[in-house]
Amino acid sequence: MRRKLDQKTQDALRKLDAVENVTETRIQYSEGFRKTALERDRRGDSPAVIFREAGLDSAVIGYKRIERCMSRWRARDRETREGKENGAMEDGR
User: Fold this and answer.
1) Is residue 38 part of a domain?
2) 33 is in which domain, residue-wise?
């Protein structure tokens, strides 16, 4: 079951640069935050630290939400990188 975000929390999250949109059950993160989070993750930074430093403390949004986001973003990033590598190989680069 998803943790519902009350109105006060939603309003606070909307003020963050890392957040593009918020509903009671979803947080949509900015593209810039996603890119920065992935770069820091590749360097070995903890997802919890990355989110906390962006104002998204796990006590507020839930640690599971952070882990699911990072997992989804890593998979998408991996797919994108593999697609580019395959495209470059087909182009003879």
Assistant:
1) yes
2) 7-87
The residues, any chain, with a CB within 8 Å of residue 3's CB and separated by 6 or more, are 61, 62, 65
Q: Which residues are bridge partners to 21 per DSSP?
A: 28
1 domain-assigned:
no
What φ, ψ does residue 22 adopt, rounded to 5°?
Answer: -140, 140
Q: pTM for the whole thing?
A: 0.85
Task: Give the C-alpha separation, 92 to 72, whole Å.
Answer: 30
Our measurement of the distance from residue 38's CA atom to the centroid of its chain's CA atoms, rounded to an integer in Å, reads: 8
Is residue 2 included in any domain, yes or no? no
What is the domain count for the chain? 1
Amino acid identity, position 65: R
- Residue 1: pLDDT above 80? no
Q: What is the DSSP letter of 50?
A: H
